[in-house]
Specification:
There is one protein chain. This protein is mostly helical. It has one domain (12-247). Helices cover 62% and strands 8% of the residues. It has six helices and four strands. It has helices at 23-44, 52-72, 80-96, 128-150, 164-205, 211-242; strands at residues 12-16, 19-22, 106-111, 114-119. The chain has a two-stranded antiparallel ribbon with strand order 1-2. Strands 3-4 form a two-stranded antiparallel sheet. It is globular. This is ATP synthase subunit a. Key component of the proton channel; it plays a direct role in the translocation of protons across the membrane. The chain crosses the membrane at residues 24-42, 79-98, 128-146, 188-212, 219-241. It is found in: Cell membrane; Membrane.
């Protein structure tokens, strides 16, 4: 019986020149290509009278749209496409690691005197590199929409010499913004990686019937983590866009 092999870091499957392609990067690219192709096909088959697939997509979009508007009003429509894209990408990255073959199909190697199986496929969200990249996308999106809405006035949120309190509040805001990167990346990575380790251990001990409830739990956790990541991005962008508006006159009328 092969020794159970659990690696915190993603394993390299092959190289393109000197660039290492890991099993999680391979899956991440697969998810990205799938979403791009699906979006391209769907955009060409869009009809005024929706069919089955279009109904599902419209339900997802309308649900997010209603939720977003309940949080930040009509202006959230500007960054809703990004939020939905993040949700779908994270959701597929979380769920794809539960498919048959993930963790069981790979290359046998000798490590520390033991023969271990290096999987060809690994859930993308179970790699800290992927979750860190997503966190950076979210971070820069927050700053982009903040600057787009307030222009250079957005900097007053971080650099304000009007009073000592405002100055130190700005420093705390800077620390808070960079802390979001750590929070986003480690929360998603920790939950998904822990779930995959749990499944691997359970399957190695009792491979039949017993793992089924854990698969159900991981499907639910994967959905919740994708929703949390997307909603936090939505909330933080809304905060950046709305910053300082409480002291401005209402220009909507």
């Amino acid at each position: 019986m092969d020794k159970l092999h659990i690696s915190l870091a993603a394993e390299t499957v092959f190289h393109i020149g000197s660039f290492p392609v890991t099993n999680s990067l391979l899956v991440s690219l697969t998810v990205s290509i799938f979403l791009i192709i699906f979006a391209a096909i769907f955009s060409k088959t869009f009809k005024k009278i929706p069919q089955k697939t279009q109904n599902v997509i419209e339900i997802i979009v309308e649900t997010f749209s209603d939720l977003a508007e309940s949080i930040g009003g009509p202006k959230t429509r500007d960054f809703l496409p990004l939020v939905i894209s993040i949700f779908l990408y994270v959701l597929l990255c979380n769920w794809i690691g539960l498919l048959p073959g993930f963790g069981s199909i790979g290359i046998k190697e000798i490590k520390d005197g033991h023969e271990v199986l290096v999987p060809l496929f690994r859930g993308a969200s179970a790699d800290l590199n992927t979750t860190l990249a997503l966190a950076l996308v979210s971070f820069f999106a927050i700053q982009f929409f903040g600057f787009s809405h307030h222009k250079l006035g957005y900097l007053k949120r971080f650099i304000n010499f009007s009073s000592p309190v405002a100055f130190f509040t700005g420093i705390l805001e800077i620390i808070s913004e960079f802390a979001k990167i750590i929070s986003f990346s480690f929360r998603l990575f920790g939950n998904v990686f822990a779930g995959e380790v749990l499944l691997a251990v359970v399957i190695s001990l009792v491979p039949v019937v017993v793992p089924l409830p854990f698969f159900g739990l991981e499907i639910f956790v994967g959905f919740i983590q994708a929703l949390v990541f997307a909603m936090l991005t939505l909330v933080f962008i809304n905060i950046a866009v709305s910053h300082g508006e409480e002291v401005e006159p209402d220009r909507g009328h």
